[in-house]
Amino acid sequence: MLQSHPDGPFVDPAATDVSDTAAALPPRRRGDGWRRAWRSMVRARWPIFALVILGLLVGAAIFGPTISPHDPNRQNIMLRLQPPMVRDSMGHVKFVLGSDGLGRDVLSRLLYGARISLLVGVTAIAIGGSLGVALGLISGYFGGWIDDVIMRLGDIQLAFPFVLMAIMFLVVLGPGVVNLIVVLGIGQWITYARIVRAQTFSLREKEFVEAARALGASHMSIMFVTILPNVIAPLTVIASFNIASVILAEAALSFLGLGVPPSVPTWGSMLAESRDQLIANKWWLAVFPGMAIVLTVLAFNIIGDWLRDFLDPRLKTNG
Amino acid sequence: MFDDKRTETAPGEPLLRVRNLRKHFPVGGGPFRRPPVAVKAIDDISFEIAQGEVVGLVGESGSGKTTVGRTILRLTEPTSGQILFDGQDVAALTPRQMRAQRKRMQIVFQDPDASLNPRETIRQAIGRALRIHRIGTGADREDRIVALLEQVGLSGDYIDRYPYEFSGGQRQRIGIARALAVEPEFIVADEPVSALDVSVQAQVINLMDDLTQRLNLTMLFIAHDLAVVEHISDRVIVMYLGKIMEIAPSQTLYDAPRHPYTRALMSAVPRPDPTIKRQRTLLQGDIPSPINPPSGCVFRSRCPSAGPECASIIPPLEQVGPGHYSACVKNRQFG
């Protein structure tokens, strides 16, 4: 029985163990990362769609002023609340996406608004995300009183309504786009910190983290090189949803006079202004900025989802 | 504790001396809770490992054997005692000195699924070891990694693969390659084959046996399986509940175990010879809680030959033969 089994105990080392995957798989080429990413996107299809949308949105943000048909702040009381695609007596369409309560062109405001909304959404998440990831890693890795301090700070922050806290900050710092972005970012860190902390807690006991310690890796290196790549995946998806709430929060703060001045159109403020007109069936005032936000979130979400899979070596989308 | 005879029988100068090592983990404590108690994972143990020697460390789960390995490498801090590596007390090194020291002592882990970072290729994992200790540069590093892979019986073509692409045995080989990357003198092998299939176990053990001889490595080989240890070790240390029960040259321990605990363990080793009639000593119950160990000899609660004196005397390790030590009050009777 024992002799008849080729894999019985104490056979020659390296006799059977080595060959099994070698035959099945050719040696992997270490292909150019960008090309690999592109191939993976093409294969998954949706990320390409998301890239196109993002391209259009970024294009609108950059070229908005040159391509917009009207001055976004030019008021025309005679032509207020025009529905989309209404032709005047000459047969021309003046407002492709209609006009608002002050007779301003919705399309132009949307194009101008892309600038602030995308800038605020993306950079605030970048700030909040980095801060949250760093604090979450430190909290989960060191534990003890450091963890207590960081997490209690987060709890205290969550106990305040965000808008109240933002008002406090902005009154002290003064209004302005940069301060607005910083405050919106700080408002988000705790979400990221909690997720990262929980995962770091379980990972720091893993043997591959111990192995890094046994090799003499520093705390910084263990946190950011060993643990971080293993905790970042779920964040890409959360961050993409978070962008929407930040865009809306910007509107709330700007409405209170703490963000961008009222003369600067943003998607959030357009939505806020549309509220009064909705009862009167002026749907276009809410639908178009709403769609812009939804498309932004959708695009980032698809990219985030793809990125999560792309970064996971176990999933074959990265071939 | 060790007399002169011990040093004579050793194949070389002791590379590692562990003296009165203790590791107690505090449990509980804090407001509104019962006062903290200590789990005595390691309770006053001393041993030496000579240059080039492979020492097996065996014991049941909860005997503290893994903690010994981790404490020697300072992956956990000792509560008290000395760990003299090449004459230097590892436990007293500053973090900076410790970093340099880690080049000389490495570890191979038990679970090949958990010991490799799933997001790192083999190149990154082993390259990091080289980078931390500034070994080689650029193309030279790649050559070294390929050489390391080949040394553990893997193809150098695997360099850009991720851990999930390998079998358990192959991953364990990668773990060994990573440990060898910094050219250590001493390796703690923490149950390196317990998680593997029996057929693969043999291959990995033979590989480690081969490597220790070729690279003149000194090794502490931890296992809970005496059959595995027998094959690779020069000497064996038997631990029970944080204390050393018996130390003996491998052959002596298998042929003539002295301590009742070792005898019980030996009788559990399967022998592929149906003609041998053996008396089996079965241990009753589980290993007691290390929070509240039995008084006197910690093994007395499960010992088949325990007497009333065992409750009061903590038996010291006594020499019972050449290089052979046993901690039992009845040592003389068991001769």
Record the SSE blueprint.
The complex is a heterodimer of chains A (319) and B (335).
Chain A: H1 19-24, H2 33-44, H3 46-67, H4 106-142, H5 144-159, H6 162-173, H7 177-186, H8 189-203, H9 207-214, H10 219-231, H11 233-255, H12 267-278, H13 284-311
Helix pairs in contact in A: 3-4, 3-13, 4-5, 4-7, 4-8, 4-10, 4-11, 4-13, 5-8, 6-7, 7-11, 8-10, 9-10, 11-12, 11-13, 12-13
Chain B: H1 4-9, E1 14-27, E2 37-50, E3 54-58, H2 65-72, E4 80-85, E5 88-89, H3 95-101, E6 105-108, H4 122-132, H5 138-151, H6 168-180, E7 186-190, H7 198-214, E8 218-223, H8 226-232, E9 235-240, E10 243-249, H9 250-255, H10 260-267, E11 318-321, E12 324-326
Q: What would your notes on this structure say?
A:
The complex is a heterodimer of chains A (319) and B (335). The N terminus of chain A is likely disordered. In chain A, helix 11 packs across helix 12. Chain A has a single domain, classed as MetI-like fold. Chain A is mainly α. Chain A contains 13 helices and no strands. Helices cover 67% and strands 0% of the residues of chain A. Chain B has one domain: P-loop containing nucleotide triphosphate hydrolases (Rossmann fold, 3-Layer(aba) Sandwich). In chain B, the strands form 2 sheets. Chain B has an 8-stranded mixed beta sheet, sandwiched between helices. In chain B, strand 9 and strand 10 form a beta hairpin. In chain B, helix 4 runs parallel beside helix 6 and helix 6 packs parallel to helix 7. At the A-B interface, helix 1, helix 9 and helix 10 of A face helix 3, helix 4, helix 6 and helix 7 of B.
